[in-house]
Design a protein that fits this description.
Strand content of chain A: 15-25%
Radius of gyration of chain A: 23 Å
Number of strands of chain A: 17
Shape of chain A: globular
Number of domains of chain A: 3
CATH class of the largest domain in chain A: Alpha Beta
CATH superfamily of the largest domain in chain A: FAD/NAD(P)-binding domain
Distance between the termini of chain A: 64 Å
Helix content of chain A: 25-40%
Largest sheet of chain A: 7 strands, mixed
CATH architecture of the largest domain in chain A: 3-Layer(bba) Sandwich
Oligomer: homodimer
């Protein structure tokens, strides 16, 4: 990690903090390449932002998405709500979010640290290497964390990184006659089983379309005509909206990007180092929880700091104990959604289940809560949401069986 | 990896090879600390040794083990054969094996390499760092492979390392009146559910006892009296054989050692680097296949080199394609045996299943082959053995159900 702007900051709890960032200052940089353009913000992320008084600032620049909008091959569009009428997720701009957070030094509210003792070499291929002396190091340095590399040298550190066979590529759908080209308050999905496209709205009335496809398939396409062919075949309604020429050009701008899932345990070394966010638990983007889980890490850490009187020796093991199972649950759920979003979402059964879940939730609002609701609109611990979901599934199946038995008894129908 | 004895060797296929080894020359060193003392050699390992004309040399210094010998808490001893009467595994001395292999440069038969281009920094904490220029690098550098660290920087490299909660500790059981203190041609097991002890015979008529126990439990024991207590309670028959004083002393000689399971994919980078052995697939020691799988890697690689005319560009991707699923299968099976050996082996059901499997194998020798036999006494690809085992289990269950149905029909018994 090349040090671009180490900053000395004294914050909230009286710790002295130094921030190291390998990318250039996003507030001054023009183009940020190779990262997704927009992110889904939901309850957990908002709670963390609220905690530092920044919720409104971010939310006001986000676009509510109340439902998925499924685009079938024939061009039919069917909405599937995310939750109740007043529940939505927000499409927020990554660049703007980063700018605001850097300005407010949000991340610092958890990095309550004096930088003095613990030695961690920070470097990047091509960058200079820096030796940092600190009492305490927080590694919030993403899926390819440099800080985490030190963890790998410790005994009994469990670690896994798994790449999925799919890559992703972003394309822009411009405004149409000055307006959004598609209904703006939706997360648009074109599920095509082995691959899919999604589109999220931006403040400038464009949509960012993301194509998810196996790398093998990306590799096969080498000419503009082949790109057009692919889109005409699978996403015909999107072709005029993105534009044939733009498609042929933009497809070759950047190679498809890889997606990695990272699990590890524990998240700390002694009382001197802790991992948070993607560094601790990178996930595939299919549950829209990556940023939210990372922000919630901060909240959980802050809550433990309060409970345990800012004693790092007690907070760190507790943070690992509490947070590891939750993070692993959402990493697994994101992987599960990787299949659900591109394949199941297409099926009648899926839509029936979503409606059944919502109906049962309406009947028994505190007993039967849809998984998506628990994950997205509450702070139910992720691993509890997962456990509860399994339990609810059993109940639903029992209900269905009971229903079949009654039908059979009353009407002789199986 | 500190270079202790780089050696220039011209071997078999005419490649020029340099060997780097971080440990001091085992042929000159006195004590090798922190590694298990003996290893189980079986068919796959022997086939590799045979290929380089070293089988007899190693086998002649090994001690055949024809069966497990289960020690119950009451002191009862029950043998469970590994296979047919003439099938056995061998307890071999790690130090002697290493010496012989170093002398014969066995590992080199696969490292058919000229050392020229590919840059790999080799270093160990505390050791000097060496930059090696080579056309081709083979990383056979163990579970904590330095070469593998370079793989982690590649995109789309899948990797996992998992530590089990158990540690292990080795203790020596001396000869009794100049003879083996226990029957020598067995692998002795004291299964105690959450933990266990095993003992393997050595040429000098000692046994090496290995205690497997959760680290938590190891940590609780801090005095000689507590050690004695543990052994009196769980391994009473072993106490007089190891000796109370030796137990109290030797337990504190070295801390319990960790055990790690490593999976990764692919095993190669381009046409210039490949991982083999524990570097590619470290496994917990409970199937006795770690060394055998590593040696078989060499055989598989050599077979591919012959098939593909020593073309590294073709051999390397094929090696990954063929070997990854097999290695992952045996890593999983070793983890499964981690439970089977200390818990199931204790149960009547386990012994009944072993006998049933052997009986079915006797009736249908080519259709129903016990998993242990496929893994240990054949070169059936590991992942095929695993698949076949699942299939055979289904058959066995069907047979049992059929049997129950017949019983019910004929005698009215369920």
């Amino acid at each position: 990690m090349t040090v671009r702007f180490p900053s000395n900051i004294d914050i909230k709890k009286g710790f002295q903090v130094q921030l190291y960032e390998s990318r250039e200052d996003i507030r001054k940089a023009k183009i940020v390449r190779g990262r997704s353009i927009n992110l889904a913000l939901s309850h957990r992320g908002r709670e963390a932002l609220k905690h530092i008084g920044m919720e409104e600032k971010i939310v006001s620049k986000g676009i509510p998405m109340k439902a998925r909008m499924i685009h079938s091959l024939s061009g039919k569009r069917s909405p599937i709500p995310y939750g109740k009428k007043d529940q939505y997720i927000l499409s927020v701009d990554r660049a703007n979010l980063n700018k605001e957070l850097l300005t407010e030094f949000f991340l610092m509210t958890v990095m309550n640290i004096t930088v003095l003792r613990c030695q961690t070499p920070l470097s990047r291929p091509g960058g200079e290497e820096v030796q940092v002396n600190a009492d305490f190091v927080v590694g919030c340095d993403g899926a390819f964390s440099v800080v985490r590399r030190q963890f790998l040298r410790q005994s009994r550190f469990n670690y896994s990184q798994t790449y999925i066979p799919h890559g992703y590529m972003e394309l822009t759908m411009p405004p149409l006659d000055g307006q959004f080209a598609l209904a703006p308050n939706f997360l648009h999905i074109w599920p095509r089983n082995t691959f899919m496209m999604i589109a999220l709205p931006n403040l400038d009335k464009t949509f960012t379309c993301t194509l998810f496809m196996p790398f093998d398939e990306f590799d096969k396409i080498t000419t503009g005509e082949q790109v057009l062919d692919l889109f005409q075949t699978y996403f015909p309604d999107a072709v005029p909206l993105i534009g044939a020429d733009a498609l042929k050009r933009d497809y070759f701008r950047l190679p498809a990007q890889a997606m990695v899932s990272v699990k590890c345990s524990p998240y700390h070394i002694g009382d001197s180092c802790v991992l948070m966010g993607d560094a601790a638990h990178a996930m595939v983007p299919f549950y829209g929880q990556g940023m939210n889980a990372g922000f919630e890490d901060c909240l959980v850490f802050d809550e433990l700091m309060d409970q345990l009187n800012d004693d790092f020796g007690a907070v760190l093991p507790e943070f690992s104990r509490v947070r590891v199972p939750d993070a692993q649950a959402i990493v697994d759920l994101a992987m599960y959604n990787y299949i659900e979003m591109r394949a199941h979402v297409n099926s009648r059964w899926f839509r029936f289940r979503k409606h059944l879940d919502n109906f049962l939730h309406f009947l028994m609002p505190t007993t039967m809560i849809p998984l998506y609701t628990m994950v997205t609109f509450t702070r139910t611990r992720y691993h509890e949401a997962l456990k509860r979901w399994h339990w609810q599934n059993k109940c639903t199946h029992s209900l269905q069986r009971l229903n079949n038995t009654i039908k059979k008894y009353m009407y002789g129908v199986v």
